[in-house]
Amino acid sequence: MKEINSITLEIIANSMTSIAEQMGVILAKTGYSTNIKERKDLSVAIFSPEGKLLSLAQHIPLHFSSLSGAVEVLTEKYDLADVHEGDIFIANDPYTGGGSHLPDIVLLRPVFYEEKLIAYMVNTGHHADRSRKGTTIYDEGMRIPVVKLYDRGKLVKDVSDLIMLNFQMKYERQGDLNAQVITNQYGADKLTELVEKIGLDTYEAFCEKWLDYGRRKAKAAVASLPDGTYEFADYMDDDGAGHQDLLIKTTVLVKGEDITFDFRGTCPQVSGPYNCVPCALKATVYYSLMSIMDKTIPANSGFFDSIHILAEPGSLVWAEEPAPVADRETTSQRIADVIFGAFAKMDPKMVTAAGNGAMSFFSFAGTDARFERPYIYVETIGGGAGARYNKDGLDAVHVHMTNTSNLPVEALEMEYPLMVEKYALHENSGGAGKYRGGMGIVRTIRILEESRDTMLVAAATERSRRAPWGLCGGDSGGTAAVRIYRDGQIISDNPKPRNVKLQADDIVEMVTAGAGGYGPAAERNPQVVKREYEEGIVDEKWIADAGIVSEI
Question: How far is Cα of residue 160 from the mean position of the Cα atoms in its chain?
């Protein structure tokens, strides 16, 4: 194997990252649905022929579960002799296809150079079609194992027809899939250009050394942590199907260069759609550790392979078929909170207080009378981020495992027969402390007359009963809610409503949680409190409840 120095290693690594980032831009620019072109609910990555991650664009941490899972299944299912130039594989199934929930459809393209497999280009995008209410994976949509969508450059029409038959909005799904095909082709072309420039022997040496570098950096970072056992537990409010107070617990064991995350004791899997399959748990652990430790550790399989994870099969965080998984992203948020809580026992300066702890979302479906065609509107809403030992938490952002953009009001009202009545900060929702937790969001949607047969297919938020916790004396953040109004009256305040028939002029309101504060509120700068009061961020009751002395 050819030797390469550290400078060459860094240059090639940055070149690979650039390819991955450009792929993300291509997918967003060519996507058809608002989920991809506006909200950027997508991710891309480059894997080695052995299925090891080489480069991951900075998009959505949880998507790594689907990307890596699909590659792992592909490399196990297909012999090298069955993988050809021009092949494109497709998958989404959490139990047979390496996915983490069905809307995230993964496309995988093998890349060849001089007839030798050198990489896999992989991307995923969220395909929003009508969600289904149920208690098993069979109720949640079409399941796609890892199969060929293109064989040596030719569309496998039978597979394509079968997939498209299961979608209501075929024109949108086909447009997004085409964008994913184009994105992987672009990445393959760029990687081939890079290998042509540096030579195949240099590229192969890079792959081996880059993974080894990630492994060594990870072990060095773990070795810098104090040895010990650190435990933390938290609860999700409910699963939307009658089960409340879902326990998630972890024990972090650090010994020398080894670190283990033990989730045994977490509650069993549930009939609501909040179960996480193993790849989703792994992605959450990897994200959390990368956020806490040395920021120069590369996001590659060398780093990930250095981490040990234990969990009980059939539990909420290690679900087995046929557990439903549609809303697993909210559970992953709580897993991250639990990991951060364990590290706070080690050193609270390493982490933030709890954030909004959810992937709050709306999903509306109906017929748009303006165009006489079905529509599906999906929106994910951010919330507060936890305060740190030296800074306030951020207001109105996605935290931890999700990272999508908001859908601009103008784009929403142009695309769908809906109106945004309010889009504002959730006042008083930031937990008090020396440093305040971030504030949540209030977003309300009015159903217009042009929307026929409209249904709130699903909406969900978390931290409606169990507020985000603070650190080192900081107060908890404000809680969340989902309310449906008709004629000015609340007709539903279920934080996880499903399949609610709506009428013209009904209003659906999402209120997301704030975040926990850090340090005693009595130590907060009174001038800052006065300014926030004048700006309407906090009111007199918030100040009094926090025990803050301020001239307002």
Answer: 27
